[in-house]
Design brief:
The complex is a heterodimer of chains A (about 550) and B (about 350). Chain A is an alpha/beta fold and about 550 residues long. In chain A, about 30% of the residues lie in helices and about 25% in strands. In chain A, β21 (about 510-515) and β22 (about 520-525) form a beta hairpin. Chain B has about 350 residues and is an all-alpha fold. Chain B has a domain at about 70-295. The chains are: A alpha/beta (about 550), B mainly alpha (about 350).
C-alpha cells in the first residue's frame, strides 16, 4: 500500500549508512473500531538501542508484536536486515534472530532456569531430555552474555529482575540478535534497572540491536541511542538521544507542553530529584490544612498481620497512620506486601491480627461496602481485574460500589436517569474520552479507563483514599491529571495512602515516605529527607535501623 | 450511542447464531443426501410438519415452553459465571411439586388460585434444588458442575422411587390426575390449536422470560449478578457479596427450570409422569448457548430447537430421527466455534469500510 505517512528516513536527523536492522513503513493495524497503528513507521540501525516511546494506546506494543511476527499488519511493509518479511510468523522471526521479551513473563515457575530456557528446543538423547547437555548449553550462553545466575535454580525462587533476565536469556538462547523489550522496567527496583541497562549495553557492544518500548523518559535518556515517538498510532518524531530533551520528547508524545514537575518519569533515576518548587503561601496553606484536619478522619493501622494464600505472612505486624491532609507514600519493590496491605484495609482480604480504624470506627471486620460508606475510597492497583468491569458501560462502571444508591429500593430497578446523570457529570468533570456513557469500558484507552476509576472513587464524598499504583500504565497526560487530583484531595483534607512502584511518583506526591520490604515498613522519613539514593537500598532490603511504625 | 455502534452490537449479537444455523443447514443437506433423499423435500416436509399446520405449530410451542425454562435456567447461571447443568432434576422437581399441590388442593379451589399455588410450588421446588448447590458453592467452594449433576441423579432417583412405590396409578409410572390447578390449553383461546399439547403455560413462561430480562439488565440485583459473572474480583471490590450472589443466582436458575414443570403437569397431561423431563435439561444448555444468554435470545433459540425436535418426528418416515439429533449437535458446535470467528471477521470488515472512505 503506497503510504501517505512519512518514512522515518525523512524525519531522521542523521543519515543511515547501511541497511537498517528494521525498517517498518506505513504500518496499519486495527482491532475492531480501534486503530492501533495508522501509518506508523520505524527505522532501527544495527547495533543500537532504540527507544520506542509514546503514551498508552499510542500503538507501541502493537507495532512491535507485528515485528515479532505475532500477527500481520493490515497494511504496510516490514523489512528486517534488508529483507521484506511483512506478515511473517513468530517462528520465522525467531529463526531470523528477532526475540521479544514480553511485559508479562512467560516462564514456568516450577521449572529451573535451564529448563525454562531450553523449553521448546530441548537437547534430546533419544526420546529423553538430555539435561546435562541443556545445563552446559544454557550456562555457556549465560556466560557469553555476562549473566551471573545459577541455572539450576527454580524460577519461582527468583526475584522479578532475575526472572526478567531469564526471559532475555531465553531469547538469546534462541539466537536472537535483535531484542524487543516491552516496558521491561515496570516491575524493577532502581538497582535492578541499572543491572538491566548493563546487560543491554553489553549486548549492544556485541553488535546486538535492541528496541525498548517505554514511556519513562528518564530511561530513554539514560540508555537509548535513538528515539522514535508514536502518537495515536503514527510516528511523529525520530531523534538522536543526544539531541533530545525530556521536555521535547514529552511534547512530541502528547503534542502539547507538559508540566514536567508532575511527571515522575522525567526524574533522572539514581539522582536526587529536583527540589519541589516552593509552594506559594505554603505556610498559609498548611495552616488551613491543619485547621481542616481537626475535623477530618485519619486512617490508623495497628500491628497488622495479613497472610497469603498459603498462610504465609505477607504483611507482618505493620503499623501506620495517615493523617488528614497528608499523602503517605509507600515505596517498595512490588510483592513486598503492599498489595496485601491495601486489600486488607479495603476489606478485600482477611486480617490475621491487628486492627484498622477509620476515625473513630474500628473497620477491621467490616464488609467492603460498610467501609466505603464510612468514607473509604480505593483506587485498586489492577484496574482490569478489580477496578473495572470491562464489559460494563462507562456509566455502569461509574456506579460500581454505590450501585445500591442508584436503585429505587434495595434490589430494585435502577433509576437509569440518575445513573446517566452521574455518568455525564463525572465524564465531564474528569474529562473521560470518548465522552459516551454507553461505551463499554473495555473500548477506552488505559488512561481513560483509569480516569473512570479515579472519577468514581474521588468524584464523591470520601475522607480516606487508598491509591494503589494510581498511574500504572497510563499516559503522560493522564498521569498529570491524576496527580493533580491527588494533590487537590490532599489539600482538601483527605488522608491518602499512596502505594507506587514508581519511586519518582512517590517523591513527586508524598508528604511522608515509607519503604516496605518483606511485609514491614523498613524506613520512614519526611519527603524532604527522602531521596532515590536513600530509598533505593531500603527497597532492596538493605537495613537502615529496625522496622519503624509509620 | 451512535447508530454505527448499535449496528455493530446487533451484528455481533445475531450473526454468530445465524452463521451457525447456516452451517447446520449445509450439514443437514449433506446428511439428508447421505441417506439418499432430497434436502429440499425433507426440509419442506419438516416445515410442513411444524409451522405448516396448527397442530404441528402447537406441538412446537409446547416444546418451546419447557425449553425456554431450562434455557433461562442455564443462562441465569452462566450470567453469574456458574454452569448449572442440573436443569433436568430441577425441572422434574418443579413438575412433581406442581403435581403434588394439584393433588392436595380440593377440586373446588378457584382455578386462578389453584394455578397460582401450583406455580409457586413448582418455582419453590426448583429454587430449592438450585439453592442447595448454590450454598455448597458459596460456603464450601464445591464446584456447581459436580454438585448439580450429582443432584440430578439424586432427585431423579428419589422421584422415581416416590412414583413407583407410592404415588402411581397402578400399571403406570404417573400419578393420578391433579384435582385443581389445570392450565387451559391454547386451543381454548385459539381453537385452531385443538389437539396439540400447547397450553397457556406459554404465557406464564414468556412473562418469566420478560421478568428475567428485567431483573438481569434493569435492577441492582442483576447488575451485581452479571458483575460476579464477568469479574468476581471487581464485584467484590464493588461491595458485592459474591457468595450470596452465587446462591441467589443458582436459586433463581433452579426456580426457572422448576417453572417449566407446569407445562407438562398442569398444561398437558395433568399428572406427573416419571421421565417427562428427560433431555430438556441438557437441551437447555444448547438453547442458552445459541440464545447468547439473553432471555429473548433464549425464547428464539427455544423456538428453533423445538422446531427441530418436532420436525424430527415429522420426517421420521423418510430419514432417521437421529439425524435431527446430529443436526442439533452440529448447531451447538457451530455456535461455539463461530462466536470469536465471526467477531474477528466483522471487525476486519468494519475497518476496511473505514479505510475505504
Amino acid at each position: 500500500m503506497s503510504g501517505s505517512g512519512k518514512r522515518p528516513s525523512d524525519l531522521r536527523s542523521d543519515g543511515l549508512r547501511e541497511a537498517p536492522a528494521v525498517r517498518m513503513s506505513d504500518i496499519h493495524k486495527s482491532y475492531g473500531a480501534v486503530q492501533a497503528n495508522r501509518g506508523a513507521s520505524l527505522e532501527v540501525g544495527v547495533g543500537e538501542i532504540h527507544a520506542l516511546v509514546g503514551e498508552n494506546g499510542a500503538g507501541k506494543s502493537t507495532l512491535m508484536r507485528m515485528l515479532a511476527g505475532l500477527f500481520p499488519p493490515d497494511a504496510g511493509r516490514i523489512d528486517v536486515n534488508g529483507r521484506d518479511v511483512t506478515g511473517w510468523s513468530a517462528a520465522s522471526a525467531i529463526r531470523a534472530g528477532v526475540g521479544m521479551v514480553h511485559q508479562h513473563f512467560m516462564l514456568i515457575p516450577t521449572l529451573t532456569i535451564a529448563e525454562n530456557v531450553v523449553l521448546g528446543r530441548e537437547p534430546m538423547r533419544g526420546l529423553a531430555l538430555d539435561m546435562a547437555k541443556a545445563l552446559i548449553e544454557v550456562r555457556t550462553v549465560a556466560e557469553q552474555f555476562g549473566f551471573t545466575m545459577n541455572v539450576r535454580e527454580r524460577v519461582r525462587d527468583l526475584s522479578v529482575g532475575e526472572a526478567q533476565r531469564v526471559e532475555i536469556l531465553k531469547a538469546l538462547f534462541r539466537g536472537a540478535r535483535m531484542l524487543i523489550l516491552d516496558e521491561p522496567t515496570a516491575v524493577l527496583s532502581p538497582p535492578e534497572v541499572q543491572e538491566l541497562w548493563r546487560v543491554l549495553r553489553s549486548l549492544r557492544a556485541d553488535g546486538g540491536t535492541i528496541i525498548l518500548i517505554t514511556h519513562k523518559l528518564d530511561e530513554v535518556m539514560d540508555v537509548s541511542d535513538h528515539i522514535t515517538v508514536l502518537r495515536h498510532g503514527e510516528t511523529v518524531a525520530t531523534m538522536l538521544t543526544t539531541n533530545a530533551t525530556p521536555a521535547g520528547i514529552a511534547r512530541a508524545m502528547v503534542a502539547r507542553d507538559v508540566d514536567l514537575v508532575t511527571v515522575p518519569a522525567t526524574l533522572p533515576a539514581g539522582a536526587a530529584p529536583p527540589a519541589q518548587p516552593p509552594l506559594p503561601a505554603a505556610e498559609g496553606a498548611s495552616r488551613r490544612r491543619a485547621e481542616r484536619a481537626a475535623s477530618l478522619t485519619p486512617l490508623q493501622v495497628q500491628s497488622l498481620t495479613v497472610t497469603g494464600s498459603r498462610r504465609e505472612p505477607r504483611v507482618r505486624d505493620l503499623s501506620l497512620t495517615v493523617s488528614p491532609g497528608e499523602i503517605l507514600g509507600i515505596a517498595g519493590v512490588e510483592g513486598n506486601g503492599q498489595t496485601e496491605l491495601v486489600e486488607a484495609i479495603a476489606g478485600l482480604r482477611p486480617v490475621a491480627a491487628g486492627s484498622i480504624t477509620l476515625g473513630d470506627h474500628d473497620i477491621t471486620a467490616l464488609h467492603v461496602h460498610r467501609r466505603a460508606a464510612l468514607g473509604l475510597a480505593h483506587i485498586p492497583e489492577d484496574r482490569h481485574r478489580r477496578g473495572l468491569i470491562l464489559d460494563y458501560s462507562v456509566a455502569d462502571n461509574l456506579i460500581l460500589g454505590r450501585q445500591a444508591s442508584f436503585a429505587h429500593h434495595p434490589g430494585g430497578t435502577f433509576d437509569r436517569r440518575r445513573v446517566l446523570e452521574n455518568a455525564r457529570e463525572r465524564i465531564a468533570r474528569f474529562d473521560i474520552r470518548p465522552a459516551d456513557p454507553a461505551l463499554p469500558a473495555r473500548s477506552l484507552s488505559g488512561g481513560n479507563q483509569q480516569k473512570i476509576v479515579v472519577a468514581r472513587e474521588m468524584g464523591g464524598d470520601f475522607s480516606v483514599l487508598l491509591a494503589a499504583q494510581p498511574t500504572r500504565g497510563v499516559d503522560v497526560g493522564a498521569i498529570e491529571f491524576i496527580h493533580a487530583q491527588l494533590r487537590a484531595a490532599r489539600d482538601a483534607g483527605k488522608a491518602i495512602l499512596l502505594v507506587s512502584a514508581e519511586l519518582a511518583e512517590i517523591l513527586a506526591l508524598a508528604d511522608r515516605v515509607a519503604v516496605m520490604y518483606g511485609g514491614r515498613i523498613v524506613g520512614l522519613m519526611p519527603r524532604a529527607e527522602a531521596s532515590v539514593d536513600r530509598i533505593g537500598p531500603l527497597m532492596t532490603g538493605a537495613r537502615e535501623g529496625a522496622a519503624v511504625p509509620a | 450511542m451512535t447508530a454505527a455502534t448499535l449496528r455493530a452490537r446487533a451484528e455481533e449479537a445475531f450473526l454468530p447464531p445465524v452463521v451457525a444455523l447456516l452451517i447446520a443447514l449445509v450439514a443437514g443437506d449433506l446428511l439428508i443426501l447421505s441417506v439418499g433423499q432430497s434436502p429440499a423435500s425433507v426440509f419442506a416436509m419438516m416445515l410442513q410438519g411444524t409451522w405448516g399446520n396448527a397442530y404441528g405449530l402447537g406441538q412446537v410451542l409446547y416444546k418451546t415452553t419447557t425449553l425456554i425454562c431450562t434455557g433461562l435456567c442455564v443462562s441465569v447461571g452462566l450470567r453469574a459465571g456458574l454452569f448449572n447443568i442440573g436443569g433436568e432434576g430441577q425441572l422434574a422437581a418443579g413438575g412433581f411439586a406442581a403435581a403434588l399441590t394439584g393433588l392436595a388442593l380440593p377440586a373446588a379451589t378457584p382455578s386462578v388460585i389453584a394455578v397460582a399455588l401450583c406455580v409457586v410450588a413448582a418455582v419453590a421446588a426448583g429454587g430449592f434444588t438450585g439453592w442447595v448447590p448454590g450454598v455448597l458453592r458459596a460456603r464450601f467452594g464445591a464446584h456447581e458442575v459436580i454438585t448439580t449433576i450429582m443432584l440430578n441423579f439424586i432427585i431423579l432417583a428419589a422421584l422415581n422411587w416416590a412414583i413407583s412405590t407410592r404415588l402411581r396409578v397402578p400399571e403406570t409410572l404417573h400419578t393420578h390426575d391433579v384435582r385443581a390447578g389445570a392450565v387451559a390449553p391454547l386451543a381454548s383461546v385459539i381453537p385452531a390449536f385443538h389437539g396439540s399439547a400447547a397450553n397457556l403455560s406459554l404465557v406464564i413462561v414468556l412473562a418469566a422470560a420478560a421478568l428475567t430480562g428485567w431483573y438481569l439488565f434493569r435492577t441492582r440485583g442483576g447488575y451485581d449478578l452479571r458483575a460476579v459473572g464477568l469479574q468476581p474480583e471487581a464485584a467484590e471490590y464493588g461491595g458485592v457479596r459474591v457468595g450470596r450472589v452465587w446462591t441467589r443466582a443458582l436459586t433463581l436458575s433452579g426456580a426457572l427450570a422448576g417453572l417449566g414443570g407446569i407445562n407438562f403437569v398442569l398444561g398437558y397431561k395433568h399428572y406427573y409422569e416419571d421421565g417427562f423431563a428427560t433431555g430438556y435439561g441438557f437441551l437447555g444448555i444448547a438453547v442458552a448457548l445459541v440464545g447468547r444468554n439473553n432471555p429473548w435470545g433464549v425464547v428464539l433459540a427455544s423456538l428453533f430447537f423445538a422446531t427441530l425436535s418436532q420436525g424430527g418426528l415429522a420426517i421420521n418416515a423418510v430419514v432417521p430421527r437421529q439425524m435431527v439429533d446430529v443436526l442439533q449437535g452440529v448447531v451447538i458446535i457451530a455456535v461455539a466455534a463461530s462466536v470469536p470467528e465471526v467477531r474477528r471477521v466483522l471487525r476486519f470488515g468494519r475497518w476496511r469500510s473505514v479505510r475505504a472512505r
